[in-house]
Write a structure and sequence with these properties.
Layout: H1 5-13, H2 22-39, E1 45-49, H3 57-63, E2 68-73, H4 76-82, E3 85-86, E4 98-104, H5 112-125, E5 126-133, H6 137-142, H7 158-165, E6 169-173, E7 176-179
Parallel strand pairs: 1-2, 1-4, 2-3, 4-5
Antiparallel strand pairs: 5-7, 6-7
Length: 192
């Protein structure tokens, strides 16, 4: 898959064929911010892994005004255009860990070995919470708009992701995961 200008113009920049809307992006940012506040996790650093055009940057920095934002993407085109860090989540090794990591619509583009390494690295890089999403087999069958979504060879069952993520995180639902060792009191029924 070529993550070039044509790809991003079709799936992100053209409102007629975009995979998400501005309203959906803003709602996602409000959900993430509300969960972080509910958990009482201070957010001073954000990693947006697979940040694409950076649509969450503004809303997240608006919610967490003192946070530093790092956009990471594998697309040379986007990194040149927006100034993101160029690289893949399974190989990214910064000097510090992040209070909040956002990573969605990335892992369906990775084979199983890369995806496992990427999830292990998310756990290593995160000291607070993770917002995670990926197109699953169930989503492909029942939820997504197939005309605005590209099917990849690595669309997996949701159970595969849950099994991998549970090694380092506890699920809260709605895509939110908290590190096992985060200094957070999780009520039993908050866990998914």
């Amino acid at each position: 898959m070529a993550f070039d200008q044509a790809y991003y113009e079709r799936f992100y920049l053209d409102p007629r064929t975009a995979v998400t809307t501005r309203a959906e992006t803003q709602a996602r940012a409000r959900l993430i911010a509300a969960c972080m506040r509910y958990l009482d996790i201070p957010v001073r650093s954000i990693l947006d892994a697979g940040c694409g055009t950076g649509s969450l940057r503004g809303p997240l920095l608006g919610a967490f005004r003192r946070a530093k934002y790092v956009g990471l993407d594998a697309s040379d085109y986007l990194c040149a255009r927006y100034g993101w860090r160029c690289g893949s989540i399974e190989e990214f090794r910064p000097r510090r860990r992040f209070d909040l990591i956002v990573c969605y619509d990335v892992f369906q583009y990775m084979d199983d070995a890369r995806a496992r390494r990427g999830i292990e690295n998310l756990s290593r890089l995160c000291r607070g919470a993770l917002y995670f999403g990926a197109l699953t087999e169930e989503d492909w069958k029942h939820n997504c708009n197939r005309t605005a979504t590209d099917r990849t060879p690595w669309v997996r069952p949701g159970s595969w992701y849950r099994r991998q993520l549970r090694r380092g995180f506890v699920s809260l639902g709605c895509g939110m995961w908290v590190r096992h060792d985060a200094n957070v009191a999780l009520w039993d029924l908050d866990k998914a």
